[in-house]
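DUF2961 domain-containing protein, Cerina litoralis. Tokens?
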Amino acid sequence: MIRILKLAPIIFFIIVLDITAQSTSNALSALTQNKEGYRSKRVSSYDKSGKNNDRKEMIKTGEFYTLCDVKGPGIINHIWITIAPRTEVISRNDIVLRMYWDGSKTPSVESPIGPFFGQGWDEAYNYASLPLIAGPDKGSALVSYFQMPFAKSARIEIENQSDKDIDAFYYYIDYVEIDKLPENTLYFHAWYNHELTNSLPDGENEWSVLGETRANTSGEDNYLIMETKGKGHFVGVNYYVNSPTPIWYGEGDDMIYIDGESSPSLHGTGTEDYFNSAWGPKEIFSHPYFGYPRVNGNMGWFGRTHVYRYHITDPIHFDTSFKFTIEHGHNNNLTLDLASVAYWYQGKPFPKFPRLQDKNMRKPMPSPLVQDIHIWRDAWRRSKGYDRQLWGNEKK
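Tokens:
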């Protein structure tokens, strides 16, 4: 048994290497195939005068800027972006990214640019997954390897909703022109949502701290990650949690409804379980398919946590409709500041998204401070008659 235990870390390392190799094997093997009719193209912010001012300068507050507007058929296969000034001055939550395929008047991608690329709230930090990357330096380079096909045209734009001007916007958009899209090609979509959730009328009773918990049999108050009609497959989500309580936020189950089923077609066992982790983790972890690039360093689970999960080898298929929801705490008992970006592929007709919240509605809630906790403690001590030796965990 001791010998087996000593070998366990080596076996785990070999398994991780094998999984990582599998995640890139298809892409690497595809490099051996000759692609007839493929012509590599790029749109970038290079200085057309031949000098070194390789950027779009001065995108004023309230302005739109079109990064590319190209004709198809084609497939975008790489995007790189960096922005000045940095997040200390302009929040990436206040710059909106939109993508339109085949002349559609409604976007198939609509999200603040930071959350789309795995940068939550008004922050910047390194993030590494298979399709999306941020960094280095400190998440300042935003990169996508999602394949984004189009039959007639592709238009990508940003809107500066910040009250600050964007001094410099650098970008590459690499794509291939092709003679014809393959049959059954699906189009890339991404949608941002944000909600300050409601607790239950009788309080935030997580882990049965306040008494017996009740059941959630309907899922009607779950947080919505995405909903669409049509045929396609879901491929992943970035999920941003801001918790004002130290209690664990992740007892909420994922509930996924496929093709109009009234009860969940896929029902999970807890938030961390859907994101391929366990036991309420609080450590940085990155895998090509899932991870925790940002965790809080406070008592319990106060503050901000970012988790992601990509269905690269296990996409979730739907024929007529798809709805992905998740509880905010067991039975939706917690007030949480939640945001998410869902990613999926589907065919035409393209869905019309709900109206994007304005920047003030998207503004992240501040995390509680030490002073707030002390005020809460004082209110509790007052309720106990201000006994001068109250400690803090007296139950009666």
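The radius of gyration is 23 Å.
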